[in-house]
Amino acid sequence: MSITIMNNETPWWGEVNLDKERCLQLDIGPLSVAIEHDAHEWRIHSQREKEVDTNDNRLHKIVGQFSPCYYQDVARYIVNSSSNHIQLLPALADRSVVCRPVAPINLDAGASVTLYVSTPIYLMINVVNSKTSLLQELATQRLSDTWFGPSTCSGELCYASATSGRLDLQKLPYRIQRATTPLLIHNNADDNLLFERVALPTPLLSLYAAKNGQLWTENITLTREDNGDFAQLKLGKAPLKMSFVNGPRKNIGHSQIIRAFSAIFN
């Protein structure tokens, strides 16, 4: 059995050559995945460990000849490809993720605030040949559904995150299975803005990696100009001294007017 040792200079994602009758096991936070390459198929075994603390930065990656066992779920894939190469790729959620500040925030007219929020990543498992084919996508943490909007007739279906947003980046715990986003809010309107929840538009964001392997997104700026629901959403540039990992699921450009405070805040 060969073992890939993870360290600060070796990201867990990327391409892996997995010959037939070999297996790759990846444990990241509460998610455990084993990928088998057989003569005619790929088998993906997965489970989320209930006894593993989501605050524990568990990361193990092993490649060798062994049979995975004790997994809750297994999926089998037969593909039109003889490739031995698979790609492990982190991605952000396919819906907005609702996070909460530690306590509700009252933002005075003319004031600004930066909130740091983290959201769980997904694991994309691809077969790489002349083109990349997605086999399976798994959330590192199971997220519950939540409705976000002023009423049941107006709003959007989101995911709910158990982690709070922080005003102080140093107080936001580092989690190997989460990506951090700086959210800058400008209240240029004449009235105060009170918000208790933030719905982060994760499908619009890209992923970047710091040298220590921590995942980040570009920053987001929301600017409220009038005493109403609309604000300008602007995506920032790529973080400095970080490497690009994965792009957005949806592309809206760098700026857009949205109904921010009925859809983003509630």
How would you portray this structure in words?
The chain has 266 residues and is mainly β. It folds into 2 domains: 2-90, no CATH class; 93-120 and 141-263, no CATH class. Helices cover 2% and strands 52% of the residues. The chain is built from 1 helix and 24 strands. The protein has one helix at 260-263, and strands at residues 2-4, 14-17, 22-28, 31-37, 42-48, 59-64, 73-77, 85-91, 97-101, 105-107, 112-120, 122-128, 132-139, 144-151, 154-165, 178-187, 193-195, 198-200, 207-209, 215-216, 220-224, 231-235, 243-246, 255-258. Strands 11, 16, 19, 20, 21, 22, 23 and 24 form an 8-stranded mixed beta sheet that branches. Strand 21 (220-224) and strand 22 form a beta hairpin. The longest helix is centred in the last third of the chain and has 4 residues, at 260-263.
Report the major sheet.
Answer: 8 strands, mixed
Order of SSEs, N→C? EEEEEEEEEEEEEEEEEEEEEEEEH
Number of helices: 1
The end-to-end distance, rounded to whole angstroms, is 52 Å
Helix content: under 10%
What structural class is derived from the secondary structure elements?
mainly beta
Radius of gyration: 20 Å
Average pLDDT number:
86
- Point out poorly predicted stretches: 4-8
Shape by Cα distribution: elongated
Beta-strand percent range: over 45%
Number of extended strands = 24
Number of domains: 2
Give the helices and strands, then pairings.
Elements (H helix, E strand, L loop, with lengths): L1 E3 L9 E4 L4 E7 L2 E7 L4 E7 L10 E6 L8 E5 L7 E7 L5 E5 L3 E3 L4 E9 L1 E7 L3 E8 L4 E8 L2 E12 L12 E10 L5 E3 L2 E3 L6 E3 L5 E2 L3 E5 L6 E5 L7 E4 L8 E4 L1 H4 L3
Parallel strand pairs: 9-15, 16-20, 16-21
Antiparallel strand pairs: 1-6, 2-8, 3-4, 3-6, 4-5, 5-7, 8-12, 9-18, 10-17, 11-16, 12-13, 14-15, 19-20, 19-23, 21-22, 22-24
